[in-house]
Amino acid sequence: xxxxxxxxxxxxxxxxxxxxxxxxxxxxxxxxxxxxxxxxxxxxxxxxxxxxxxxxxxxxxxxxxxxxxxxxxxxxxxxxxxxxxxxxxxxxxxxxxxxxxxxxxxxxxxxxxxxxxxxxxxxxxxxxxxxxxxxxxxxxxxxxxxxxxxxxxxxxxxxxxxxxxxxxxxxxxxxxxxxxxxxxxxxxxxxxxxxxxxxxxxxxxxxxxxxxxxxxxxxxxxxxxxxxxxxxxxxxxxxxxxxxxxxxxxxxxxxxxxxxxxxxxxxxxxxxxxxx
Length: 276
Hints:
By secondary structure, the chain is mainly α. The protein has a single domain, classed as ABC transporter involved in vitamin B12 uptake, BtuC. It contains 12 helices and no strands. The chain has helices spanning 8-33, 37-56, 61-82, 87-108, 116-121, 129-148, 150-158, 160-165, 170-192, 197-209, 215-240, 244-275. Helix 2 (37-56) packs parallel to helix 4 (87-108), helix 3 packs across helix 9 (170-192) and helix 6 packs antiparallel against helix 9 (170-192). The protein is globular, with a radius of gyration of 19 Å. The termini are far apart. The model has no long low-confidence stretch (mean pLDDT 88).
């Protein structure tokens, strides 16, 4: 891996992976503890419509995809607040329509020659160095917002009714969280693609939840695991000429299976000790 860092594109890819890991660690933790993984998945796949809009109208990728993703995310958030009993169906419809819109617009784009696979499965090796500043800004905004509203998000995540009694503006914080999720997903898509984005957003927090004793610790553990998975996957992709996004997710999946195995073995030992 050391020799690979002699190449500028590898250094840029590593930096993008580290920033993405921080974003995943912070926002992914809130996604998992608030049980909005399905909603985040809907935003990720609907974001493909934003990619189509960006190319069809000749807009910058970030502007087109982020704007559309935020619009879809706010719609989904409103649905989950006002019509919870139908939210899964409506999110599924927006999910499908967003992707279909993206495909149609890309079909209609004159001279379209963008590699579709790079958006479906990520292309961390081709992330422009200029995007690192955008990723850094998103990471800092995420950390800043979560730090400022930490106690409120803590209350909202584990006991929404108690948070409302305390006077926490739950609805506003929820919409803010969904907005952060949408913007974060646009960043992560560049690294692992829209199909695999939810895996990187949820696997590290899921593993960390078993060992963390606070929300802060869970975010730190999640970020650390994301860095480990990303760096390892990036190395394997470079070493064996693999698709980087898929390699990163396979490493994360292996980590997920190992955590389940450790949990099963630990539970078995405790049961044996109790029986003895």
